[in-house]
Amino acid sequence: MEYVYAALLLHSAKKEINEEAVSEVISASGTEVDSVRVKALVSALDDVNIEEAISRQVVAPATAAQAPAEPAEKEPTAEEAAEAKAAEEKGEEEAEESGIEGLGALFG
Question: Is the dihedral of CA 11, 13, 18, 22 positive or negative?
Fold first, then answer.
C-alpha cells in the first residue's frame, strides 16, 4: 500500500514517478524499500493516466447500486428449537466421549 501512496504523493507534487523517486519516498517514511515492488509499480503505472484513474474512482462509488437488504430470518418454531437443542446436546456428549477416548490413547 505504501508504494501506491508514494506514487500518489509524487503525482500530487507533480514529480516524475520513477524507481528512484518512489524508493526515496518509501525510505523517507522509514519503511524498507523492496526494489522488486518498486519496479513492478513503476512499470504498471507507465501507461496509466493517474488523473483519469482518480476521477473515475471518485465517481464509481457514488454511482454504484446498493445491494438489497437481506431478508430477516424467520423465528424457529418450538419444535425446531427443541430439535436443535437436542442435536446440540448430543454433539456435546459425543465430543466429551471422543475426548476421553483420546486421553486414554495418550496414557496407554
Answer: negative
